[in-house]
């Protein structure tokens, strides 16, 4: 089982906090560190957060949420091996060519450590502020995934789509392996089908075991439908911090668990992560 940290949030938004959590996780053998993303949070938004029972994000609307790529670039410079992951970037509200450039640059600078976790988004008000249509964001996301792989992998990229097109267009640098793993975020059936069809991984989070099991089953059936090996698609879940819970998720087909930093300040985060490494990771890895 792989273990990651969900860390780019209010507590570790500043430079010292980011460095503390990232270097501790890197030194202690955590496999990956993950960010969240919202460019803006409009006050009194009405969109329903599907990952919260209340329909609202945890924390105040004005909480500090660092830019994912900038935060990961900062910690890339102070770490050696931990993978740098977005959990998740809201792909359809971004310019896909800029996104390809930014991630490829980060991948080169970090020695090939980037994972793109990508979701379709749920906050209409955020799309409105950015001037991007909220409608048909799923179709936009599917096309953007395909465009990213062309920009990263082809020597002289060409792509003709509804939302993005380019001809004989160099986008350099390219990723170290000319490919960055794309993990599809979301626990809806549509997200699960997208992961099976297009994803290198699936990041449904965790609601309860029944919901997670259903999402994984939908993903696997979608992969088979599209002639892909479902066992090759990594599944990432969140929130389990005990050995018994880890084993239950392993049996469901989960291969990575992402946990919170387990501490509320930079001075105690190393001790908290070390305790988890000794009490859980060492027993189940």
Protein described:
The protein is of the alpha/beta class. Helices cover 40% and strands 15% of the residues. The protein is built from nine helices and eleven strands. The strands form two sheets. Strands 1-2-3-5-8-9-10-11 form an eight-stranded parallel barrel, surrounded by five helices. A two-stranded antiparallel sheet has the order 6-7. Helix 6 (189-198) crosses helix 7. It is globular, with a radius of gyration of 18 Å.
Low-confidence stretches: none
- Spatial separation of the terminal alpha carbons: 5 Å
Helix content class: 40-55%
- Work out the number of β strands: 11
Secondary structural class: alpha/beta
Q: Using only CA atoms, what is the Rg?
A: 18 Å
* Bulk shape: globular
Write down the oligomeric state: single chain
Amount of beta strand: 15-25%
Strand order of the largest sheet: 1-2-3-5-8-9-10-11
SSE series: EHEHEEHEHHEEEHEHEHEH
Indicate the mean pLDDT. 95
Number of helices: 9
- State the major sheet: 8 strands, parallel, barrel
Write a compact overview of the structure shown.
With about 280 residues, the protein is α/β, with parallel strands linked by helices. It is built from nine helices and eleven strands. The longest helix has 17 residues, at about 135-155.
Label this structure with key terms:
globular, single chain, 285 residues, alpha/beta, two-stranded antiparallel ribbon
């Amino acid at each position: 089982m792989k273990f990651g940290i969900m860390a780019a949030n209010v507590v570790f938004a500043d430079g010292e906090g980011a460095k503390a959590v990232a270097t501790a996780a890197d030194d202690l053998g955590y496999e990956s560190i993950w960010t969240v993303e919202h460019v803006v949070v409009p006050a009194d938004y009405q969109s329903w957060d599907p990952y919260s029972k209340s329909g609202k994000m945890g924390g105040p609307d004005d909480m500090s949420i660092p830019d994912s790529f900038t935060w990961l670039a900062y910690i890339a410079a102070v770490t050696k091996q931990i993978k740098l992951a977005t959990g998740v970037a809201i792909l359809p509200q971004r310019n896909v060519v800029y996104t390809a450039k930014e991630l490829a640059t980060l991948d080169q600078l970090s020695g090939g450590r980037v994972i793109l976790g990508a979701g379709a988004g749920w906050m209409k008000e955020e799309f409105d502020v950015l001037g991007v249509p909220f409608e048909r964001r799923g179709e936009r996301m599917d096309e953007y995934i395909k465009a990213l792989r062309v920009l990263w992998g082809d020597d002289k990229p060409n792509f003709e789509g509804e939302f993005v097109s380019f001809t004989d267009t160099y986008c350099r640098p390219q990723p170290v392996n000319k490919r960055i793993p794309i993990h599809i975020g979301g626990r809806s059936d549509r997200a699960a089908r997208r992961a099976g069809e297009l994803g290198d991984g699936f990041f449904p989070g965790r609601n309860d075991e029944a919901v997670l099991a259903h999402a994984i089953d939908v993903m696997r059936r979608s992969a088979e439908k599209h002639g892909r090996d479902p066992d090759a698609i990594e599944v990432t879940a969140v929130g389990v911090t005990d050995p018994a819970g880890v084993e239950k998720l392993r049996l469901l087909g989960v291969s990575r668990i992402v946990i919170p930093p387990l501490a509320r300040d930079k001075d105690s985060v190393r001790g908290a992560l070390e305790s988890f490494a000794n009490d859980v990771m060492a027993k189940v890895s």
